[in-house]
């Protein structure tokens, strides 16, 4: 069963696809990889040594983001949208043999694994996943043959040692003649032979490196920060990559070639808050210190036992999957002339002094591994404590790990690596909505927990891919030296709050215990409920207690402000469908009247839409007979060589139409469109090209990825037209049934407003919330105009995701997240959408404008919509004015 990607994963793959498509269609003949990157990111593109002309980009994901799964999807994205190929070669490079073996297992040996399924969805069932050693025995590496993924390590292909600069003889076989590899070199065009490495006699070397060079492999670089030395670049360049995609939590950010520092081209960064929002990691982390090592162990045991009670309660509610919380204990190293609290000492203390069953304790160090291949999340496993020293086995994941107990130096990079890499992963990648089970815990041997927390935060940024804001909010410090229970949902109050002052949503969930003076709150408390609770208590002491309670309970990513300082919510009318006295969101894509009726979609593709020539990058074309006409050097066109090598000579029109239909249904975009409707349309398209326009079938087959992209766009536009027609029909028949009124509103509140990336160049006076979502330069100018206008009470930079607290209007189909939401002095709500001139003429953008104007028209004067193009501040002023 295919795993549905999280929103941040979909965004990451979509951004990579956008970049690949931009490179492929770039008009610049010299630097399409640079132009596309700088256009998409508005940042400079840095060329690594030896990779001029090769797209080399980085996807930044914090620890726990699922790099391997994303990489499996990325291979197919690059193959289709950059290379236009179904049968790419991929060099998948891992930082160590342990990670390599783990990657091999999930990609080829686990048919039910999501990684295995994702790779085959991307490349087809015939994809071969092999090691570099196995690739040396491959008899068929010819371009156009089955997709091939070679999983290896950085060390296995390096020509020289990073430190000494000496050649690594063991790796030279990759670059030597190999009798198995003769076929790829048969009947090669002279232009291609010229680019191959040769031996001392000037003969082309029949090596694996040369065979891969011919296939222009996609390179996936896992933990890319480990491979940015001149030697690594030099070695990798020998394989002639068509594209390099780095995946890392900590990309190189400084660029100074004189010091051999080469910055990564970060195409898309993902925030730790995105992972938290989608249930991938546990945040925040409760950090407590103890002055004695036995107290650290005792505190960890108490917390683990308390969590297991919570986990048992969770399991028995509606059949939730089981969770068995595990504590990781970082012991001290064993030293010859010094007594230390090493692994065996800690194990005996857990068993003899704390009464833990020996079956529940395992040691996992560099010299002793009592875990082996045991499945720690299996119901049969009894493990509840794992003792380590420097590090756990690389690639070791256990989402059941909740607690780190460190009696070594908790501020070391190793300890942080354990804390984030092992403790943060969320069981089953699903939030439990039980506050105690949705966060992690750390107990450290330290006399200064605040200083330790600051050091840990620094390491989170440097080692684990957290941005500074996420790292600052990741730790909730409890500067205590005494044992405390699991106090979530509990606040000490001198007297019970007034029930009448509590909202209905909270009143039924609170109980006050007079003997202990403790108020218990069942479930998660919202900022509005916490504010109401604060107002319902009588003394300053109790109000301070509620403030402190909220600071511990608030979700990671929410603004770190006192309850009394939180901004009032902003209410924006939804576009609502009124049926009697019931109002529901107006969502045209779900209308019963909607029908695809793809038969009515024009299958004819004119020369303007799909030309007669195959463009290979910007330097070569293929004429109607399939002959290559090269107009620039081989280096300029090698990225697209696969299109020049006999691919698709034996396809029939039926096979092409079926392939196009499979591409149309590759994802969930066309869920409502049946194959019985789409397949006949594809046959009409192919007949029109081959029989109508007399295009050569082999050439059309070679261009099938370009054709598929064109047809997806046409089908999507037809679907939008059909949905809009259905919506227009409903509006025509029942115009009074659609309204924008205060009866159904969206609440923008400060604690749910959690942008993953923030704007921090300067502060605005009237932004409603403390955080401001990121924006580009022209959007910032628009924001400044809004902020300074005398009729503006407050405004919000809207986010582009519901998970970040964003407001949307319905498109047909889809959602429209406007740029700004403005509250005017008289309470009128204004939506502002800013567009550069070129984008403002795009049909999809014009549809947003129509939706916004329709929303304004159905609001009886309480809502306004502004469409601002190319710094038209006069139009903005008119919309903002009373």
Give structural notes.
The chain is of the alpha/beta class. Helices cover 35% and strands 16% of the residues. The protein contains 28 helices and 29 strands. The strands form seven sheets. A seven-stranded parallel beta sheet has the order 3-4-2-5-6-1-7. It has a seven-stranded parallel beta sheet with strand order 10-11-9-12-13-8-14, sandwiched between helices. A hairpin with a 3-residue loop joins strand 20 (614-616) and strand 21. Helix 3 runs parallel beside helix 5 (114-123), helix 18 (527-536) runs antiparallel to helix 19 and helix 21 (653-664) packs across helix 22 (675-692). It is globular, with a radius of gyration of 30 Å. Mean pLDDT is 82; it is low at 589-593 and 616-648.
């Amino acid at each position: 069963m295919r795993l549905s990607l999280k929103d941040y994963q979909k965004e990451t793959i979509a951004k990579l696809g956008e970049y690949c498509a931009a490179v492929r269609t770039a008009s610049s003949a010299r630097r399409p990889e640079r132009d596309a990157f700088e256009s998409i990111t508005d940042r400079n593109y840095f060329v690594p040594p030896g990779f001029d002309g090769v797209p080399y980009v980085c996807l930044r994901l914090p620890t726990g983001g699922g790099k391997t799964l994303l990489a499996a999807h990325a291979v197919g994205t690059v193959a289709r949208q950059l290379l236009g190929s179904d049968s790419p070669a991929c060099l998948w490079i891992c930082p160590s043999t342990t990670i390599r073996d783990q990657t091999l297992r999930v990609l080829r040996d686990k048919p039910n694994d999501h990684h295995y399924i994702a790779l085959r969805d991307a490349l087809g069932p015939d994809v071969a996943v092999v090691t570099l050693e196995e690739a040396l025995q491959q008899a068929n590496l010819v371009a156009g043959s089955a997709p091939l993924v070679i999983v290896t390590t950085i060390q296995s292909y390096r020509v020289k040692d990073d430190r000494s600069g000496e050649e690594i003889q063991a790796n030279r076989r990759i670059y030597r003649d190999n009798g198995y590899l003769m076929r790829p070199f048969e009947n090669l065009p002279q232009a291609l032979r010229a680019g191959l490495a040769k031996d001392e006699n000037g003969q082309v070397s029949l090596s694996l490196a040369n065979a891969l060079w011919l296939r222009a492999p996609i390179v996936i670089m896992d933990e890319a920060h480990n491979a940015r030395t001149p030697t690594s670049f030099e070695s990798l360049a020998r394989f002639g990559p068509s594209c390099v995609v780095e995946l890392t939590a900590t990309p190189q950010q400084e660029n100074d070639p004189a010091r051999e520092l080469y910055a990564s081209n970060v195409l898309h960064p993902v925030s730790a808050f995105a992972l938290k929002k989608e249930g991938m990691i546990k945040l925040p982390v409760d950090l407590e210190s103890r002055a004695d090592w036995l107290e650290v162990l005792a505190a960890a045991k108490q917390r683990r036992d308390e969590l297991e009670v919570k986990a048992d309660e969770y399991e028995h509610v509606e059949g939730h999957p089981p969770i068995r919380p595990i504590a990781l204990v970082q012991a001290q190293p064993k030293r010859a002339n010094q007594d230390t609290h090493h692994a065996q000492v800690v194990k005996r203390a857990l068993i003899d002094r704390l009464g833990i069953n020996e079956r529940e304790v395992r040691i996992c160090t560099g010299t002793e591994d009592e875990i082996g291949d045991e499945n720690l999340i299996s119901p049969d496993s009894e493990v509840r404590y794992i003792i380590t020293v420097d590090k756990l086995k690389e690639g070791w994941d256990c989402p059941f790990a909740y607690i780190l107990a460190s009696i070594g130096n908790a501020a070391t990079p190793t300890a942080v690596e354990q804390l984030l890499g092992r403790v943060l992963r969320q069981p089953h990648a699903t939030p439990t909505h039980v506050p105690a089970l949705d966060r992690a815990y750390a107990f450290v041997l330290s006399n200064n927990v605040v200083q330790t927390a600051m050091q840990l935060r620094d390491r989170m940024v440097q080692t684990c891919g957290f941005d500074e804001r996420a790292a600052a909010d990741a730790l909730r410090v409890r500067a205590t030296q005494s044992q405390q229970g699991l106090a979530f949902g509990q606040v000490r109050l001198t007297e019970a709050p007034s029930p009448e002052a509590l909202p209905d949503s909270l009143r039924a969930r609170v109980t006050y215990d007079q003997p202990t003076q403790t108020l218990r709150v069942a479930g998660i408390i919202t900022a509005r409920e916490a504010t109401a609770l604060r107002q319902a208590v009588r003394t300053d002491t109790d109000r301070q207690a509620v403030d402190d309670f909220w600071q511990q309970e608030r979700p990671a990513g929410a603004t770190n402000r006192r309850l009394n300082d939180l901004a009032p919510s902003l209410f924006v009318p939804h576009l609502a469908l009124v049926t009697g006295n019931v109002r529901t969101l107006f969502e045209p894509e779900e209308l019963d009247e909607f029908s695809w009726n793809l038969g009515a979609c024009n299958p004819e593709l004119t020369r303007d839409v799909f030309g007669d020539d195959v463009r290979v990058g910007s330097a070569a074309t293929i004429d109607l007979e399939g002959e290559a006409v090269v107009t620039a050097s081989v280096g300029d066109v090698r990225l697209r060589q696969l299109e020049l090598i006999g691919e698709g000579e034996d396809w029939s029109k039926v096979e092409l139409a079926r392939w196009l239909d499979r591409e149309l249904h590759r994802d969930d975009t066309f869920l409502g469109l049946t194959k019985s409707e789409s397949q006949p349309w594809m046959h009409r398209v192919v007949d029109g090209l081959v029989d109508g326009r007399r295009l050569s079938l082999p050439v059309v087959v070679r261009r099938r990825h370009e054709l598929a992209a064109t047809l997806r766009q046409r089908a999507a536009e037809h679907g939008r037209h059909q949905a809009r027609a259905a919506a227009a029909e409903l509006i025509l028949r029942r115009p009074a049934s659609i309204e924008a009124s205060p009866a159904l509103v969206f609440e923008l509140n400060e604690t749910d407003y959690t942008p993953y990336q923030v704007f921090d160049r300067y502060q605005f006076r009237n932004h409603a919330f403390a955080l401001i979502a990121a924006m580009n330069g022209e959007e910032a100018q628009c924001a400044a105009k809004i902020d300074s206008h005398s009729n503006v009470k407050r405004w919000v930079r809207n986010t582009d995701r519901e998970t970040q607290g964003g407001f949307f209007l319905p498109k047909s189909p889809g959602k429209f997240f406007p740029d700004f939401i403005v509250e005017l002095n008289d309470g009128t709500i204004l939506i502002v959408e800013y567009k550069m001139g070129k984008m403002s003429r795009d049909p999809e953008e014009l549809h947003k404008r129509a939706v916004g104007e329709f929303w304004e028209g159905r609001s009886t004067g309480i809502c306004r919509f502004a469409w601002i193009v190319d710094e038209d501040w006069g139009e903005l002023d008119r919309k903002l004015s009373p």
